[in-house]
Amino acid sequence: MENKLPKIIIVVGTTASGKTDLAIELANKYNGEIINADAFQVYKELKIGTARATDEEKKKAKFYLDGEISIFDRWDISEFQKRANTIIEDILSRKKMPIIVGGSNLYIDCLINNYKLDNVAQRSDLYDDLSNEKLYSMLLEKNANLSKKIDANNHQRLVRALQILDNKQTLVERDEPKYNPVFVWAYYDRAVTYKRINERVDKMLEAGWINEVESLLKLNKDLTSLNALKAIGYQQIIDSLTNNTKLDVEKIKTLTRHYAKRQLTWIRNHYNDAIKIYNLNINELII
């Protein structure tokens, strides 16, 4: 049976796989506009360390939810779902193609599966002061299957998952789907991906990542409780600056590679039928 739901393009891939470049090419080819589905690139203060779209890239395509929220503002998967749905409807109303791109696969999942999140309590104070290790242990005890889908180092998602379980809901509760998603996978083999990750960390540091964090510390605000700064690398740089110790760059690279491995596992388990675009070559792609 023909799927009559409006078509949207979903760009998936590990960190440093070139998702943004691919999304821009798709936007130019299919008259599209891009919605960021990365839990950290949404924050305007976190530009270098989250590898947000550059000013030059934003001249090539229209971006949404990219650098629009302050790290001091509330942002979670429910807010993303609401905002993204509104933006998608607007893009479709103008006869353009919505293109969702980002490494936060749970954000993508909540859109395409239309998770019921409206009635989930937003309070996180019960969990904010707990370590990621403790949060993951609690999640593992409450729902072992769900714990396999959550990054053990992502404070925000761990808190969100526990909130949902506290409200006796699970992420599989959903309404009827609203879109017909076409998945496009920005794909490199593992060796190339890891090489790109290592090189990107070096480039971010050369571009002033440490200065970016120093400017945040100068705000004289409590940053320790901010979910925004749970992004890989930020806490390591904060610790280095506040304790006057040498930054462990290799640890940041290792954590990022581990994150990419978890992303790859998710993609294979959930979007394995995605159209693989090797080395970002879309010449023969037809959607």
> How would you describe the shape?
globular
User: How many beta-strand elements?
Assistant: 6
H/E series: EHEHEHEHHHHEHHHHE
- Helix share bin: 40-55%
Helix-strand category: alpha/beta
Strand residue content:
5-15%
**CA-atom Rg in angstroms:** 19 Å
Lateral strand order in the biggest sheet? 3-2-4-1-5-6
Enumerate the spans where pLDDT stays under 50 for 5 or more consecutive residues.
Answer: 121-125
In whole angstroms, the N-to-C terminal distance is 18 Å
Total number of helices? 11
The largest sheet is: 6 strands, parallel
Q: How confident overall, as mean pLDDT?
A: 89
Describe the overall structure.
This protein is an alpha/beta fold and 287 residues long. It has 11 helices and 6 strands. The chain has helices at 19-29, 55-58, 77-93, 105-112, 132-142, 144-147, 155-166, 190-206, 209-217, 234-243, 249-270, and strands spanning 7-12, 32-36, 63-64, 97-101, 180-187, 275-278. A 6-stranded parallel beta sheet has the order 3-2-4-1-5-6, sandwiched between helices. Helix 2 links the parallel strand 2 and strand 3. The longest helix has 22 residues, at 249-270. The radius of gyration is 19 Å and the shape is globular. Mean pLDDT is 89; it is low at 121-125.
